[in-house]
Amino acid sequence: MDDLNAAYADTVRAVAASVRDVNDGEWGARDWLRLVVDFESLSEDGGAPRTSSISFAIAREGDGPLEKVGFRLSPEAKAGFAQIGRIMHAQKGQDWTTSTLVVERDGQYDFQFAYTAPYRLSGNLNDTRYRDYLERYKAETGTP
Question: What percent of the chain has pLDDT over 90?
């Protein structure tokens, strides 16, 4: 496996290991169905990049209703995104500003990268782009 694919896999594992560190309350007996991370990174003046992330799981407890549960990324998960950035910079000579990761329960994952001004790090601190994600997930999967 090449370095980039190894970094992808390591980052996915670190994100999945982070899911129990929820923003509010306890993870409890939930099982996650999908993980979503929107990770922004902006390098300025050659120093350490500024970063911002939104991370949440679509989850449920037993046969209960689906929930959107926010969680904190571990230092290992954040380091994984940084490693992906370094490898891609070495390969392409440019830095991505946003990486969106979607991980499915069956282990499939997808990284998407953008090279435009990052939304939150450009001053949009109240990011509502994922507010209706639970409803979008239900519509996409046909889950009630």
Answer: 90
